[in-house]
Amino acid sequence: MRSRIRKRRFAVWLAAACAAAALVNAPAATAADPGENPGDHKVHPDVVAATTDRPADFFVLLRSRADLAAARDIGGHGDRVRFVYEAVRADAQRTQADLLRELGERGVRATPFWIANAVKVTGDRALVADIAARDEVVSILPDRELALVDPVRKEPAGGVQGVEWNVEQVRAPEVWNTFGDRGEGVVVGTIDTGAQFDHPAIARRYRGAERPGTLDHAYSWFDPSRVCGSPSVVPCDNIGHGTHVLGTILGDDGAGNQVGVAPGATWIAAKGCETTGCSTTALLAAGQWMLAPTDFDGANPRPDLAPHVVNNSWAGPPGDPLFREVVRTWVAAGIFPVFAAGNIGSACGSAQSPGDYPESYAVGAHDAGGAIASFSSRGPSAFGVVKPDVVAPGVNVRSSVPGGGYAYYDGTSMATPHVTATVALAWSVSHALVGDVAATRELLDAAARPVDDVGCGGVGEHNNVWGHGRLDAFEVVSRAPKGPVGTLTGVVHSGGQPLVGARVRVEGPVGRTVATDSVGGYQLRLPVGRYRLTIGKFGHLDHTADVEVRENESTAHDADLAVAPRHTVSGHVRDEAGTPLPGARVSFPGTPLPTAVADKTGSYVVADVPQGHYDAVAEGGDCLLPARAHVEVEGDTTVDFALPAKSDAHGHVCSPTASKWVSAGTVLPLSGWEGATQVALPFPVNLYGQSYRTAQVNVNGYLNFTPSAAGRPLNTPIPHGDEPNTAVYAFWDDLVVDAAASVRSEVVGTAPDRAFVVEWRNVTFPGTPHLRVGFEVVLHENGPIVVQYQGIDDDPVERGASATVGVENEAGTDALQYSADRPVLGDATAVVFRVPGTGYVRGTVTDANDGKPVAGATVTAVRDGAEDQVVTTDQDGVYQVRARVGDVRLRFAARDYGAEEATARVEAEHAITVRDATLRTGRLEARPAALEIVVPPGQSRTRTVTLANTGTAELSWQVKEAGASTTTRAAPRELPDTTDARTTRGLPGSEVAATAPPAPVLRSWTATGVQAGWGVGYRDGPWISDQGGARNAHYTDDGVLDKLHAAPWAGYWVGDMAYVPSQGLMCQNNIGGDNGIHCWNPDTGEVVDRITGPHPWNGGDKRALAHRPDDDTFYVAGWEGVVYRVKGLSHPDRGAVVGRCVAADPNISGLGWNSAFGVLWAATNSSSDTIYALNPDTCQVLKTLGAPDNAPWTGAGLETDDAGRLWVVSQGSPTTVYQLDGGVPDFTDAPWLRISPETGALSPGGSARFDVRVDATGLAPGVYGATAIVVSTTGRTRTVAIPIKVVVPAHQVALNSGGTPHVDAAGDTWALDRAYAPGGHGFLDDGRSRVVSTTRPIAGTDEQRLYRNLREGAYEYRFDGVPNGVYAVELKFAELGRTRPNSRLFDVIAEDRLLLPAVDVVGAVGRLTAMDRTVHVEVTDGQLNLRLVDRRGAPIVNAIRVTHRPDLTG
């Protein structure tokens, strides 16, 4: 064996966590404000939030309360409980009837709870409002689940230690020895994490095993969430807390481990806490069951079997009232409620609910030295009373834990069972106290040893630290009213010899059970009365008699037990299918009979079985549930067993299978003590109702299918709420992959019969390299999952003594555990997990418009009219559902797609049926894609945008304005060489004022393995580039490092990244070197393509990169502020510039493209590290976000993920990665812009128009911008962004050369042509020009009046009084005569620059056809000169417009 730090056998401290307490932090009801809906004041704010945009679960509390005053006068525990049960249940049924009827009529799911007169409802905000308006409703509270809080300390404990210190300190042994009282006849209930019912310390006191040799869990075990099986017919404890608590109440294994205070008491248990949390539903159901235990189906309630005292070692926030009605009901029924005070420390007022209720008895904790525990919660209570009530040992408490062992725990959870057991001792010895909760409280209080500490208020003997003081069980029992008593004694023989260890049981006014001593003697001190005496021992016939105990007298009754005749019990052990189970074991619990092992035919024989009644148990391995049979042996008896398969709630079963070992070839990048790596799955793998295409392989012997924050070397039983979840645990233990070991993968077979294998080869354990194991997970394409083993030797550790094996769901609430911490594995062991009677339906969901996959579509399998399973398509549109053999109806749906339905048939178990689906949706196109409108001051212009639905379904649309502002054209920043610079500090313009609040941070984590982060990419989790190491690291969304690729191609370092889905490549800027874009395989890091120069954009280093998949272009930027749009890998002229703009903030460090809104996100490195959403064409700011941290000059890369969230990296120490909610562009109305209409709908093939009207009244000359964002109900591209650029010129002149004044279709005025006069504008011709006109139509234009007249022979147009600046000169030409090509040639010269050489209109476009040309010139002297210089023939012009362009430079 080895010595190492083992997983802490972890009893979760339930006292701050369970969801019953979580239900409510309900404020007191107040009067509704004017304008509120009726009943709004009854609704908890968390319910409002939860139901705002979707249905949610909530609890409705009704006002009525049953009158239970008469209960106090009813004698007898069972009768009193029955009265309370019937009264409370009747009141709830009466007052809930109308509400339940209405909910049923509306098809609303509702679960009533009579214990608190509450109804759990699933509904939306409208339903909440309707319910709240009802008079009988007092409040509506949220359904929550709180995480369990660990005991403050947990530590394994070995060895037999006799009576534990804490048991001695409360003086329990004095009670046993003085009064002969160990709690007999008292039933204790626990609401906790369950119990290992057969743990030696507690097994003999379980009510379900009360009759020797028999087991009956009905009415003694309740698991409302079915964590321990479906149905849950056998107790379990997947956390350990409940078993530890029960041990402290009554634990005694008979072999020296005396850990319990009342070892004669009997226990039952309800599993109110599923894992590391307690659901509200489970806690209410458990509280209800304690008042009236039921069978496994929750039916046939038996209030006469209710416990006398209930231990609750869990708690929630202070002042939480929900469970108060449950506690009041228990008290009315005479059930004593004991609660932990809480573990949240020394602050005053920290006592937690329900322990802080006046009706609850709350327990704090002290240590062995008598000092208050630092973690023990203090009062005063939120309900105005002193808390705790008493303090008991709660530090270093040794008790039982699952697996048959013991452990030390610290916590008020550990102190509470001391009080529960003390009540059992008192009620066992004092019949008058049973059910008298008030008198028992007074007795506990008066018997406590007071400690004066008024630090949190109270008085010396009753304060908010110690309550009434330290618990003293002996003083409690001594003071208990006992009434007249006598003694029953006797000696038991058999064949004249004393019979040692015979069981002596009396039933009457009280119940007691003792065993005979070494001379066969027994003695019982009992209240006076008549009793039924039964004496028995294995191998002997029972002796029964009626005896009477008289006051202060000793009644003697001896017995001589006859030896029972012996017979043979035999039979067969099979599974439910009738298959024999060789090696199955048949035993008779509670007897010394040997365990029989079935032969190869499943036959077994047990000889020499004494006559009597027994419960025989057959067990057939770790994949089958035990079967039990009550056997009456009066002669040779045949008993056959059929063992049911062990299963989880989802339906998984397991079974042994033949090992078919696969030696995997691909070595995965895993080594050392910890670590995980992501692997792509060659086919979909289904686990617990969802389908996966990737998995994380962990060093510690498991693979999981959803990201987890970190690997866990220390295993737990499953299910367990802590990570990892959604996992296959082949050998979950603390493992090491050293130089002699490896983890490998392999794909074998051909579709659809492939298998994916992950092999852990020759792995070892910390500190014990001589121990080695090999094991593997085999994921079969058709569903089964196999775990198999080789190289397993006899050492228990190699055989799984500290490992977990099984499968578990995503929430950690359902699992099929094969083994946990048991040495059951061997060489060639192989176990298959499967869901019997099921196969797969697989397919691809595509868009009817483009034929491409639809990611994120939901596929619902419907059986018998009800939803059976819902899965989501992956990024390739692939889904896979597990379905029962036979027909299954499939419903396909996705946001803004029309739903489709289809039927698929699964022919046989493990068969795969392919059923593809095509979803219809609208597709919106807008023309033009951008608007540039020139509007002179004081005028207005209107342009029209046409929308068309080219898709296959109707769509609706709405136009919104965003980013309205005045645009100041920024000039590129001149920079020195900044190739090796990591920040802009010291550069002009790097001091940027912070103008926006920080972006909402969704998650953040430190980038482990990265020295200095910069670039960000995203593909199945973020990639982060490392400046310091020239490498790229991949993480899960939660920050688990799973890949690290070197980048030897880097110049100075590697920059920002962008994923190109069409190529499956991650592309990245090279900072230095060729300053190109290098694209590499995400799986290997190998560069497979690149874009290098020379290009205008890569003359200097560019740090920022984004990819636009709709047209395969990149956006590239650096610290000069220019954003270039360049062609991507699929273009023949890759790297060519498509467009560019200059950002107002030039300090760009990262870029990311949001396809949904057509927005370019930019991160910056400056004194504020501001993040911007930009119009990709104009660099106009659409939204501004502040940096997620407060460290200046730490901004770096940026990327968007598939959901449009932002990922940014901060260069701070350490490198920190943030996921941000970028939201949508800020929609703002521009006062100079009006859009009409703003909404509409389009059928497939339909079109619509909206007008964009710009009014320049009051606008100064300049450039204005906005973006019209058309939001549509289309599945693929939900928004279309139309940039609107408005130019208000300082000067504009438009002339209709040779024609008359004209207003064109755009609303622009063209003036009458005129000869030049100084101070004005016009043509110069030395009197030689002429006007030529035609009435014939001009092709290529709708503006006929601008082209049917021309001026021929003018040599110049001159414009005086022109403000200096850049001007657009628009020239319109049309040849109206019979001129031939090359017969009229002329040059156009503006401001002494030749701009249009050898203009040949006919040669360019032909006769009677419009030709437009625009040139840009800069005016510096207040006069614009446009010369028309003839080469051959006289120059012509039809119209001229000169417009100042403040948006351009010369």
UniProtKB/TrEMBL annotation:
Q: Say yes or no: keyword Transferase present.
A: no
The protein's matches in Pfam families, at most eight in alphabetical order, are given as: BACON_2, CarboxypepD_reg, Malectin, Peptidase_S8
Keyword annotations:
Hydrolase, Protease, Serine protease, Signal
Where is each Peptidase S8/S53 domain found?
183-448
Q: Which domain of life is it from?
A: Bacteria
Q: Does the keyword Protease apply?
A: yes
UniProt cross-references to SUPFAM superfamilies, sorted A to Z: Calcium-dependent phosphotriesterase, Carboxypeptidase regulatory domain-like, Galactose-binding domain-like, Starch-binding domain-like, Subtilisin-like
* Gene3D superfamilies in UniProt: Carboxypeptidase-like, regulatory domain, Galactose-binding lectin, Peptidase S8/S53 domain, YVTN repeat-like/Quinoprotein amine dehydrogenase
Malectin domain segment(s): 1292-1429
Where are the compositionally biased (Basic and acidic residues) regions?
Answer: 971-983
Residues in BACON domain copies: 1229-1277
Secretion signal span: 1-31
Similarity comment: family membership: Belongs to the peptidase S8 family.
Output this protein's name: Alpha-amylase
